[in-house]
Amino acid sequence: MTWNHDLTTAPRDCRIWLASECGKVIPTYWDKKREQWAGFATNGKPPVAWQPYTVPAHPGVLTALERIEAKLITTKHTFVDDVGGSV
C-alpha cells in the first residue's frame, strides 16, 4: 500500500491510517462532531499522508483462495519419465 498525500481524497466514512509530521502512523477516523481526524489536535499540525486501513492477516492464516490454490498445486502433478535417453 502506498501513501496518498492528497488528504482531500481521504474517505471520511471509514477508518484510515494517517501519517503525522513527527513520524507517527495513526489509525483514525473522521470525527464529525469536531470536524477533524480523531487523534490529531485541533490547532496542531495536520497529517501529511493517508492510506486505507487494513489489518494484515497473521502469516500462519491462509485465506480460502490461498487454501484452494495450495490444494491445486499439491494435487496436480505432471510426471515425465526418462524412457531410455542417453547422456
Give an overview in words.
With 87 residues, this protein is of the alpha+beta class. It has one domain. 14% of the residues lie in helices and 18% in strands. The chain is built from 1 helix and 5 strands. 6% of the residues are buried. The mean pLDDT is 82.
Mean pLDDT: 82
Give unreliable regions as ranges: none
Proportion of beta-strand residues: 15-25%
Order of helices and strands: EEEEEH
Cross-sheet strand order for the largest sheet: 2-1-5
> What structural class is derived from the secondary structure elements?
alpha+beta
Q: How many domain units?
A: 1
The N- and C-terminal alpha carbons lie at a distance of 50 Å
Q: Characterize the overall form.
A: elongated
Helical content band:
10-25%
DSSP strand count = 5
> Biggest sheet, open or closed, and with what strands and sense?
3 strands, antiparallel
Total helices: the number is 1
What is Rg? 24 Å
Provide key terms for this protein.
about 90 residues, alpha+beta, three-stranded antiparallel β-sheet, two-stranded antiparallel sheet
Describe the structure in brief.
This protein is of the alpha+beta class and 87 residues long.
